[in-house]
Fold this sequence. Notes:
CATH architecture of the largest domain: Alpha-Beta Barrel
Keywords: DNA damage, DNA repair, DNA replication, Hydrolase, Magnesium, Metal-binding, Mutator protein
Largest sheet: 8 strands, mixed, barrel
Structural class: alpha/beta
Strand content: 25-35%
CATH topology of the largest domain: TIM Barrel
GO molecular function: 8-oxo-7,8-dihydrodeoxyguanosine triphosphate pyrophosphatase activity; 8-oxo-7,8-dihydroguanosine triphosphate pyrophosphatase activity; 8-oxo-dGDP phosphatase activity; 8-oxo-GDP phosphatase activity; metal ion binding
CATH class of the largest domain: Alpha Beta
Pfam families: NUDIX (PF00293)
Domain Nudix hydrolase: 5-135
Enzyme class: hydrolase
Radius of gyration: 19 Å
Bound molecules: 8-OXO-guanosine-5'-triphosphate
Number of domains: 2
Amino acid sequence: MNTDKLVEVVAGVLYNPQGEFLLSSRPAGKAYAGYWEFAGGKVETGETYLTALQREFKEELGIDVIQATPWLTKIHKYEHAHVHLHFYRIGARQWRGQLCAREQQSWCWQQPGKLTVTPMLPANAPILAALSIPTRMRGQFNTGFHTVSAQEPQLKILPYHSGIAAAVSIYAPANQLQYLAQQHPIDHIWAICSSREQWQQAQSAAAIIWPISSIDDIKLLLTLLQQEPSSVPVMVFQKKTGLTTPQPDWMNLGAHGIIHELE
Ligand SMILES: Nc1nc2c([nH]c(=O)n2[C@@H]2O[C@H](COP(=O)(O)OP(=O)(O)OP(=O)(O)O)[C@@H](O)[C@H]2O)c(=O)[nH]1
């Protein structure tokens, strides 16, 4: 196989009503057989990402995917292939049918942050970390944000200030990322972005915070989600600005979650 050519791959994070997600093991005979992954596979000629995902879930697990939400993308070079991975989320109401392993693979439900199976495909570590980020948070820009729902992973994140402990998750402007990464683990730093350049800088952070206070912020975020899908979760920070424009359905457009500003 020519490993220089970028191969388009779709993979689905499928949820059950308990908020658990599905992992399956790679069948014998494939590269990385026995490793755990999200169900999916290569996009075939003429397919959209959604139709490829629907075909793969039917072939591998016998279920029908009705809808899926674009989430994260990632490029990874294996010794056997150079892959462009497109991860989708499939909510508990977005699929139907009875799960059955059609390729003699194993499958299991997992809770975010509490993985009980190993090993995982090498490219997937940041994807699993992203699943531990809640989709609904709230708080104030100056004092920090926290999870809203008891059903989601509990997380508190604080604005950076000098002297803050390295174990704390922090947020700071994207252009400070390189400097902060010398003192804090990069997977604890969220980057605040409001331009294309910052969006690109922030692709090594744990997550992006995109504040919305004007129509231009909405327009640029829509463009970036479409033209340069992120490899890290995007949290849309909805500020209390009196902006009357209705907000797009961000989570259906590729954002990971929403942060609501409190008074
Ligand atoms: N399905 C899937 N593939 C992944 C994930 N993460 C990841 O790096 N990959 C890589 O993406 C590629 C997917 O190809 P595949 O071999 O599963 O594709 P396929 O089902 O169409 O198989 P085929 O080779 O029989 O046509 C592999 O190189 C695999 O290592 C993941 O979470 N799910």
